[in-house]
Structure formats: C-alpha cells, structure tokens
Amino acid sequence: MENAFSDRINDVPKSFIREILKVTIDASIISFAGGLPNRAFFPVKALQKASNAVFEQAGAEVLQYANSEGYIGLREQISERYRKRDGLDIAPEDILITTGSQQGLDLLGKTFLNEGDDLIIEEPGYLGAIQAFALYRPRFHPVPVGEGGMDTEKLSLVLQERSPKLLYTVTNFQNPSGISYSNENRKAVADLVQGSSCIIIQDDPYGALRFSGEPKISFKQLAPDNTVLLGSFSKTVAPALRLGWLVAPPGIMDKLIIAKQAADLHSDYLAQRILHRYLADNDIDAHVATIVAQYGKQKEAMIGAINDFFPAGIQCTNPEGGMFLWITLPETMSSMALFEAAIQKKVAFVPGTPFYVDRKDSNTLRLNFSCSDEPTIVEGIKRLAESIRELS
Amino acid sequence: MENAFSDRINDVPKSFIREILKVTIDASIISFAGGLPNRAFFPVKALQKASNAVFEQAGAEVLQYANSEGYIGLREQISERYRKRDGLDIAPEDILITTGSQQGLDLLGKTFLNEGDDLIIEEPGYLGAIQAFALYRPRFHPVPVGEGGMDTEKLSLVLQERSPKLLYTVTNFQNPSGISYSNENRKAVADLVQGSSCIIIQDDPYGALRFSGEPKISFKQLAPDNTVLLGSFSKTVAPALRLGWLVAPPGIMDKLIIAKQAADLHSDYLAQRILHRYLADNDIDAHVATIVAQYGKQKEAMIGAINDFFPAGIQCTNPEGGMFLWITLPETMSSMALFEAAIQKKVAFVPGTPFYVDRKDSNTLRLNFSCSDEPTIVEGIKRLAESIRELS
C-alpha cells in the first residue's frame, strides 16, 4: 500500500505531540505538554447568548453556503481591531477568514511552494507550521531564534545564497520558545527581506496575551509589500470554532481564495456569525485582560519554581506573554531521556525534537503554563527538578 | 509577482461558477445556476435548541481544541446510519469528520497524488472535485457518464493503459448531470477496478435525496478494499456548518489524519456537537422526507415545463433524486452563447464548460431545481425556451 500514497504524505512523520498527549491522558500526570488555552476562560454564556441572537435575528441565512472570503462583518471587526490596537490600516477586503490559522499555513504552502522551493523557518519553530509546509516539500532553512529575535547574520546568509519564497515567523511569545523579536531585530529582518521576493509570514496567535513590556512594531509596517499576517481567535475566544484569518494584498489574495475554495469552500458560517455577534456585544479587551492576568501569574509561578528547584546550569526564557517557556538543559542531557524519567514521576512536557526540522534529539524542551494553577505548577516543577537531578 | 506563486495555483483558473453567481445577484433574474439546497428546509429552531442543549450540558469542553478524527458520538451516528440505511458495517474508527466533503477531496488529493499521477474523473464531472484535485497536478482521464452510469469500455481502456490511483465518482444523482449508476454498471465498474491499486472515491452528497426508484448497491460492498466513501450533511441538514465525512480503511486513515492535522487540526468542534445533539433529538429521516417531497415536485415541474416549452431535439436527464438536470442542446448550439442570451431574458444556468476537465465550450448545461418554487420554475423554463428558439 505504501507506494500508493503521495511522496509528500510518506515523508511526514506522525505527530509527535499527538503521541505525547496520549501519555498525558492519565489524570495523575501533571502535564505541561499541551498547547491549549485555559478552558476556565472560555466565554460559554456569552457565546450561547450570541448563538441565540444569531439564530433569532438571522435565521436560515446563517445555515446556507456562504462566500469563501468569510463574513464581511467579522472581517470589518478584525480590520477595526488592527486600526485601534496596532495602528494598522487593513481593508476588510484584504482579510480572508480561515479554518483556524493552521489553515492559513496550508493555503500559503499551497499557493507559494513548489517542491524544492526554499523556505526559512525559525529554529526552534512551530511544529504545526513545519508539518503544514512539509507537505509541499520545500527545502527548509532553519534560522535560530533566541531572546531578542532572529539570528540576522544567519538570515542574511540564507537570503544571499538562496531565493526563499517564504519566511515563517512568530514574532510575539513564540511557540515553542516564548521569545519575542525586539523592534531592532524586526527592523533588521525587514531590511534584509525588503527588495527581495521573499514573503514574511507573521503568525501571531499569542500577540494579545501580553503580561509585560510594550507592543512591538509589525512587519506590516516595516515591509508592507512583503508581509502576510496570520491571526487567530483560538487563544482569545475559543479554539473549537476553528476561526482564524489571513491578511494579504489583493494580488496574493486572489490566489489564496482559489486555494480556499478547493480546501473547504468556506469556514463554518454559523460560527463566523456567532463570533461576530459575540465581538459586537462584549468587551473583548476586558475579556483578554482577565486571561492575561491569570496566565501572567502562572508564568511567574513557573519561573519562581524553576529558580527555586532546578539545579544550576539550566537556562529558561522569561516571556512577556503567551503560553510557553523554553528550557535549555546542560548540553549533554537529552530531553527525550528526561521525558521518560519525568513520566515516571508523573510530570510531562514536550521535548524539543519536533520543533527542529531535522527532528534531532536535543537538550531543549517546552513547558506550557496556561493550563495549570499555581500550586500544580510548583508541584510539577519540583517533580521535573527531581528528574533532572536523577539524570545529571 | 506571478512567478512567485506555485505552479499548481497558477494552473487553476478562477471559479467559473463564482463569476456566474455574481451575475445572478440581480433579484429580477430567475436563477437555475446555483447548487444550493433550499433554505426553507433548514432546521433553524431545532439547531438552535440543540445548540442551547450543548452549551448547557457540556459547557467549556465544547469550546476547547478537539481530536482530529472528529467527535466520536457523531461518528457513531454516521456508522449507525450506514448500518440501518445501507446495510454497511462501518466502524466509527474508520470515519473521519471533514470540513465539508470538499475537504475530503483535498485530503485525498494530498494523500495520494504526486504530480503527473493518473486520475479518472467523470465527464461531465463535479467541478469542485476537478478544482481540488487539479491543485495536485494529476493527469486527468475523463470517462463519460450518461443515463445508467459510467462508460465501462472507456474505463477499461484507461485502466489497461495507465495505472490510475483514484477514480472519482458521484454514483447517485450526479452533479452536474443528475444521472445515477445502475446496479449492473456499479458491478461492472467494481469488477474492472478490483485487483488493481486504484481507489474508487464514492462521493455521495445527494444519496439521501431520492424521489423515486430503489437505492443502489455501494462500491463499499462491491470492492470494499478499493473504496473510500465521502458523505455530507450539507444537503440533509445545513451547509453552513461545513461538516462532512470520509470513510477509509485504517491503512489509509492514518495518512489522511496527518493531512487533516496539517490542514486545520480538526473541524469546528462546537458545530460537531450541535449536529450530534440535533441528530440525537430529531427524526432526520422524516426531515429528509419533507425535503425530498418538495424537490421531487420541483423536478416534475421542471421536466414538465421542458416538455411543454422546449423545441424538439433537446435532450434532458430525468433524475431519480438530487438537485440537478442536465440539458443537451443541438450539437451546433453553444451553451455559453445561450447563457449570454438567457441573461438578457433574466434567466440563468451553468453552461457545461466548468464540468469538463479541458473546459471546452459545449452544447450542455446544468439546471438546478432545488431552490425555485414551481411557478418560478415554469416561468424560468419558458424564458429559457425563448432564448433557445432565438439562437436556433
């Protein structure tokens, strides 16, 4: 059967995270492995109210096929939010509603990538992006990211030696590392890319979840012709609805709409209308502020416990927002080995492996802090510290 | 910019239907062009009730990320329905919930097709399938379908000369032609395919909409190892939810799930839960029977008006279900030219062109009868008859 499949699907390994999450179904395990927003903040009542309003006011219309671009009212709200929050002037017509921002990645891969095309991705990078792009069989060029942003020396080299079509970035509170690009780093990246035909994909699922520090400048301001933005409601409202969006100039949008039609005709229209009603009737900024306050406390608890319990020689990022920390163990320690040891102590995390294009074993790992309360975080970090000591 | 895009997207023309539907926004036009189910039958109240039940009984859980395969309760309902209605024994684990059955097509293309692989498609064929598969750049082998089913002589030739990976079929009330494969034809097709590595995709969005005649045997019974089934709730419940499904054996399913994760992680989970609740609390068979009764009357009205008003020498299919009729004009008459003339008389349809892989101008056209009441159908067919006479 194997040779009946496409080369692209034979090349993509089964999701690593999926296998790990299976282990963590055991309720006695403290899991820092997930990438989920905290369900305690899902606006259940407000969405139910919005749903009833939509059924009553719009009736059968919201159950019919709809246009591929998405509900114009929702795209206007997104446009308005860019204007108010980011000072960005983005026309609703330049916004495409996607089935989660994951679909945005698939549509971009489909629209831009021929087999063997060059693509720059952060290292470590978002594994969902690696997976989505891998299906179009590009040549990946990982460029390291760390505190402050992307390694511009390495980026410059790749841009000189190759002609990458896409540069994938998560500039705010990156998944997996939690790092953010500084304004200086953004400017340096934009300067390098501008004038080339490389498109910067600025994926921003966590941007609204800022605990501290100042919002940073967008690539849309620095390199407007070279930038595509991805956004998501999964971390601010609810992931189940699978609603995200993509911002692209008209020349690119025309192609993306062809890809969108072929992919699923349009995203769930009832969900779009419910979300639109919810955003119209509720103060989303106040809602997000509640989430941010709690995630911020949980991050502090995790950083505090790491400082208290981890042995010396272990590095940890200190994000200004988002849902993840990134741990660098001593060079000789394998995070895959640590994972096995930690599961024995009933604590789980994601080893660095799936965040590297070459899936190498590494001394790095990701910790999620959005889904555990503070005492659980402290207990889990204690267990993890014990596992590290055992392996040292 | 053009050369920045992938070859696949540069090759796919903008949706023809989309352009046509723009013309029909004019309310004075009687449109037989759409492919929409009749919104008069959308169960607005029952879905609202189901939505409230889900919010109240399940709360935050239905707003969280969910598994890629889809909600097990919904997959069990689909499995049960196959057992009861079709006598098919399909395990819920062999069912993948997709974002409309359109996504099923994209996932199958992604999972099976390398560039240049051979693919058999009906001629005329469903344009959404042509569009979805075209993005994976296969070599299309159109095989004619007509009253009774697929041209097995031509099919046999293609199977002998090439090694097609996929054979795409809509065996019940096909879009665009309305034809169905007879049991004899299904057996002949299955016999030809069995033993080869070709997968038959049996897409069945309209199967439940039968006005007359007997249900036919499934490829799943005739060639179980070679068959993938696609299904949809768009024509029986509501299209806006974008919920369909795919049935495949485990060896194929594993690959499809990888493709599904990369495409959108999972389909809208709230919508899955609402649909599940709706199906649990309502008699879907009774609901579909109401739709079928009305569509059947509308089809009779259209066939009657065609017999009354069309000039001689025009052929028309007489479907036992579904939403479409297929007209064959005299050989010298172009349906594109007729479209221009008909728009002047305020009646619209879809010319045959987009249903042919080579997009040739043709003397064929598709008429939709699901969305217009009987007097409107008669008036529209009168206008169309006048346009035909003018062109003759």
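qc> Chain A has a mean pLDDT of 95.
qc> done
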